[in-house]
DNA sequence: CGGCATCCACATGGATACTG
DNA sequence: CAGTATCCATGTGGATGCCG
């Protein structure tokens, strides 16, 4: 498939320096890709707006997921001091750069959704 | 982002009919994308050959992963009756169709691996 | 060679209720 | 509005050892 000069002997490792595993730790969580997709297509959002759009998620899990996405530098959180106050969730540049990955996932899923078995 | 006629109100649901979640259940497991990548680039393989290439995986986890991939129709398993017998793992057409998804994950990971923080 | 059996640890996700 | 606090069920991965 590849000639000897550029061949990788190890496809991926258990450690973090594997590109695929790196991406999988972001996109492999149950709700993460859905949330990123929502922020990509729907733009910035408040907490409950997000919760309403992402069908089936609970407050706690959305909160946990957003916290994880912030720690990983994919999502930015901004508190707007008003009454009542608002919170603004948006993608960072890094988060937005996941678009090709999310798009590929969405496309594959859409094509194979009609034939889940066989 | 989209006009009113083609807008999706719900980005994804907790149920199985969501395209992204569908893909995430395949590609979101820790070792699945790595195994598929190995089979895409390295061609069909025996069990231990696969285990050697996928650095860090245990027999049990590789076995579990391959079983799951078979159930989902992504991987084919063929037993070759020789002495000693061999087993042949390869991608099905459906498994091979994941190539764009895996490629997108690999590319994103490679680009962002050098800057894991910030 | 190509696994399976066991047992275990930890992470993820979910239900429910409550708060500033 | 935007979460937090508990508590709990399950899943996923890992270590070790044995088997046909």
The level-1 CATH class of chain A? Mainly Alpha
Q: How many domains of chain A, as an integer?
A: 1
**Mean pLDDT metric of chain A:** 87
Report the structural category of chain A: mainly alpha
Number of helices of chain A: 6
Morphology call of chain A? globular
Main sheet: strands, sense, barrel of chain A = 2 strands, antiparallel
Kindly report the oligomeric state of this protein. homodimer
| Number of DSSP-assigned strands of chain A | 3
Biggest protein-protein contact in the assembly: A-B, 56 and 56 residues
The main sheet of chain A orders its strands as 2-3
- Write out the CATH superfamily name of chain A: Winged helix-like DNA-binding domain superfamily/Winged helix DNA-binding domain
Percent of residues of chain A in beta strands? 5-15%
State the end-to-end distance of chain A: 28 Å
Helix content of chain A: 40-55%
Rg estimate of chain A, integer Å: 17 Å
Detail the poorly predicted runs of chain A.
1-8
> Order of SSEs of chain A, N→C?
HHHEHEEHH
Protein name (chains A, B): Helix-turn-helix transcriptional regulator
GO molecular function, one term (chains A, B): DNA binding
InterPro entries (chains A, B): HTH_HxlR, WH-like_DNA-bd_sf, WH_DNA-bd_sf
Keywords (chains A, B): DNA-binding, Transcription, Transcription regulation
């Amino acid at each position: 498939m590849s000639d000897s000069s550029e061949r990788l002997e190890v496809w991926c490792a258990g450690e973090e320096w594997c590109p695929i595993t790196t991406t999988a730790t972001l996109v492999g969580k149950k709700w993460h890709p859905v949330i990123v997709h929502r922020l990509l297509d729907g733009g910035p959002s408040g907490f409950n707006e997000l919760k309403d759009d992402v069908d089936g998620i609970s407050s706690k899990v959305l909160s946990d997921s957003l916290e994880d996405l912030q720690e990983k530098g994919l999502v930015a959180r901004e508190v707007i001091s008003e009454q009542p106050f608002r919170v603004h969730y948006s993608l960072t540049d890094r988060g937005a750069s996941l678009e090709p990955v999310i798009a590929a996932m969405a496309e594959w899923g859409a094509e194979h959704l009609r034939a889940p078995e066989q």
